[in-house]
Hints:
The protein is mainly beta. The protein has 2 helices and 21 strands.
Amino acid sequence: xxxxxxxxxxxxxxxxxxxxxxxxxxxxxxxxxxxxxxxxxxxxxxxxxxxxxxxxxxxxxxxxxxxxxxxxxxxxxxxxxxxxxxxxxxxxxxxxxxxxxxxxxxxxxxxxxxxxxxxxxxxxxxxxxxxxxxxxxxxxxxxxxxxxxxxxxxxxxxxxxxxxxxxxxxxxxxxxxxxxxxxxxxxxxxxxxxxxxxxxxxxxxxxxxxxxxxxxxxxxxxxxxxxxxxxxxxxxxxxxxxxxxxxxxxxxxxxxxxxxxxxxxxxxxxxxxxxxxxxxxxxxxxxxxxxxxxxxxxxxxxxxxxxxxxxxxxxxxxxxxxxxxxxxxxxxxxxxxxxxxxxxxxxxxxxxxxxxxxxxxxxxxxxxxxxxxxxxxxxxxxxxxxxxxxxxxxxxxxx
Length: 399
């Protein structure tokens, strides 16, 4: 039986979803009868709340061609990294940038037609502290990095590019582990998640490319969790998407952080699946898991309903959360009954694709910045066009 606070929470969540649909001109959302409430061991322990939907002044994006923070028309999926130890430099972001979208209009005359469709990665300094207004350095052509490999040869047609960065800093060896996707036009017929490492993400020459996370597999991104606190022989984990949009998140394991394999036990190869009658019918990996004050982990993940976009109350892409067990992070012990972030801001909605935005109704996260006290910035791409921030709070003793 629910108490009055639980009833209020449910009514508030329902009214929020109804208001969102009214703003978008969509039908009211259905309930989510097949979610996990009460079925996971710590479901009632946790509450994850948005405390500041957009901490950038005036409802703006953090990075956008429109507001003059990037020379590229489209800057979107973004990984966060802490400053190199002892460097005195700011924290940083690795941002997927695209000059134009040949799916929507002509890209004649762009400087880099060889990666126009898939994109490239730009590294930029950022101030995302808990107490100041979020700011980043200006993104230009000089910020482009190809992590451990030459860029695609200059040509008049798209060859390949870099997509969807995710990054984990490993304190034990003071190394940054970047996963990023190498793909051809629209990532068909191939897409491969690669691993690169460096001691300094700001250095263009310091990267080493190690190859695919799962050689021979079609993968759509990977987030890494290192378990060095569990001993020298600890198993480390990679959470790997198996789709260009959303499907299942696979589990891979490693003892050195470089070579990753699926578990020999087939039943352990799947980390997370969609829930057919819930809001997250198919799932895609998010940013690196981050430890909470009680030892468990926050894991942010995405949904992608696919393209072309078919109007629905959740948009094409939305963001959710799960809690992973601190002793065994392959176990999900709590999971969102409703989406955490949906595309509600104007620059996330993109009603008309073209030179100003790429994809309709998208919020897709590949970055997570800890702020202390179980608070975080979720860093995401809005409409595959701009970089946004949302501040969230995890209550580890909600009930």
